[in-house]
């Protein structure tokens, strides 16, 4: 699935710039709501952490 289907480019840029380290920081990013946090949050945080 292409990244733009899950998050907009602006949301992906914000994730890359802010490098959230927990759910609270991730959901504070525009474009990430409770549903996306639940569906993709653990994977996004793992990628940001470099694991």
How does the SSE layout of this entry go?
Blueprint: H1 3-6, H2 9-18, H3 23-27, H4 34-49
Polypeptide structure, described:
- This is HRDC domain protein.
- Pfam families: HRDC.
- The protein has one domain.
- Helix content is 69%, strand content 0%.
- The radius of gyration is 10 Å and the shape is globular.
- The N and C termini lie far apart (20 Å).
Summarize the structure.
With 51 residues, the chain is mostly helical. It is 69% helix and 0% strand.
- Uncertain segments: none
Distance between the termini: 20 Å
Per DSSP, what share of the residues sits in E-state strands of 2 or more residues?
under 5%
Which structural class best describes the helix and strand composition? mainly alpha
Mean pLDDT: 94
Any idea what the shape is? globular
Q: How many β strands by DSSP?
A: 0
Number of helices: 4
Element-by-element helix/strand order: HHHH
**Helix-residue proportion:** 55-70%
Q: What is the alpha-carbon Rg in Å?
A: 10 Å
Could you give a short account of the major beta sheet?
Answer: none
How many independent structural domains? 1
Protein name: HRDC domain protein
Domain HRDC: 1-51
Organism: Mycobacterium intracellulare 1956
GO molecular function, one term: nucleotide binding
């Amino acid at each position: 699935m292409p990244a733009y289907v899950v998050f907009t480019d602006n949301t992906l840029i914000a994730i890359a710039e802010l490098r959230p380290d927990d759910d609270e920081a991730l959901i504070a990013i525009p474009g990430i709501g409770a549903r996306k946090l639940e569906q993709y949050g653990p994977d996004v945080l793992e990628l940001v952490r470099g694991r």
